[in-house]
């Protein structure tokens, strides 16, 4: 059965470096037999800015956000995918604000079991992945970003797989000429499609 992959792309630049890497990744994953859906979360219409800690999601048995906007069905659909990919450029040592909006709303997919002291969710058996670009070095830009996403994966009981590219050119046309990066993105897409 073909793997189902969703990419939550948080780059506000539709033709930027991150979206270029996502395109290369998705093409290769599809060639390897996966079904890939790319969601441009940077341009969704939200009712609120991220999670507002209303705790409505904890007051019912559904694992979804109670706020009705364009993010709600996306969040509810995440357990149906085999691979959940977060894609973002590094903006001031973290993910873009646009990706953070939906990332914070993922809190609605977790419930705390007071008896066991553990979080309960429906994301078991999934693969989490990160695709990220940065204008700076890995140590100060991408490592802190990876740490954030690996903590989310740890909370979920999953491993995080990463494709990160430091010192990405600010000139997107220059970036698109990087055959080595395209090759890495394609290999990552094929790997996650298996």
What is this entry, summarized?
By secondary structure, the chain is of the alpha/beta class. Helices cover about 35% and strands about 20% of the residues.
Secondary-structure map:
Blueprint: E1 4-9, H1 17-31, E2 35-40, H2 71-77, E3 83-89, H3 97-105, E4 111-113, E5 118-120, E6 127-133, H4 138-156, E7 160-165, H5 172-175, H6 179-193
Parallel strand pairs: 1-2, 1-3, 3-6, 6-7
Antiparallel strand pairs: 4-5
Helix pairs in contact: 1-6
Reported by name, the CATH topology is Rossmann fold
Computed over alpha carbons, the radius of gyration is: 17 Å
CATH superfamily: Flavodoxin domain
User: What is the percent of helical residues?
Assistant: 25-40%
What's the CATH architecture? 3-Layer(aba) Sandwich
Tell how many strands the DSSP assignment holds. 7
Question: Beta fraction of the residues?
Answer: 15-25%
Number of helices: 6
CATH top level class name: Alpha Beta
Q: Cα distance, first to last residue?
A: 10 Å
Strand order of the largest sheet: 2-1-3-6-7
């Amino acid at each position: 059965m073909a793997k189902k992959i969703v990419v939550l792309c948080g780059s506000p630049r539709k033709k930027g470096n991150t979206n270029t890497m996502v395109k290369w990744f998705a093409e290769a994953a599809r060639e390897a037999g996966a079904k890939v859906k790319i969601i441009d979360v940077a341009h969704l219409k939200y009712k609120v800015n991220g999670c507002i800690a209303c705790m409505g999601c904890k007051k019912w048995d559904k694992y979804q956000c109670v706020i009705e906007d364009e993010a709600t069905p996306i969040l509810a659909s995440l357990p149906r995918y085999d691979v959940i990919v977060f894609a973002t450029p590094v903006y001031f040592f973290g993910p873009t604000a646009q990706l953070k909006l939906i990332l914070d709303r993922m809190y609605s997919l977790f419930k705390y079991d007071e008896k066991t002291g553990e979080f309960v969710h429906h994301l078991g058996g999934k693969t989490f992945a990160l695709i990220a670009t940065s204008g700076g070095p890995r140590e100060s830009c991408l490592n802190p970003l990876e740490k954030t996403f690996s903590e989310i994966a740890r909370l979920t009981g999953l491993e995080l797989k990463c494709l990160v590219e430091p010192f990405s050119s600010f000139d997107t046309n220059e970036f698109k000429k990087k055959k080595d990066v395209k090759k890495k993105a394609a290999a990552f897409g094929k790997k996650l499609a298996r």
